[in-house]
Design goal:
Length: 90
Amino acid sequence: MVKLNLLLILVLVACALSVVSARHQARKLFVTLQSEQAHGRSLDVEWGQLQLEISTWLMHNRVEEVARGRLHMTIPEPSRIYVLRAEEQP
């Protein structure tokens, strides 16, 4: 009977230690999850800023301004504009 009680106490201690270990691991994983979620939110903000910057750079007026200012381009005369049409494929 004493051996059975001692065995049950050892099993109880082992179970208690495994519960403590599992809870500690769960807390560590939760902290990691929160950190990764915060990083994901910061990447979402950065993505939004990049999309806004791209839309600003691609605006027609901005493109025309750069073409005229930096590249010294002008709109061609109508007589110099040629429209090419692609042949339709069957």
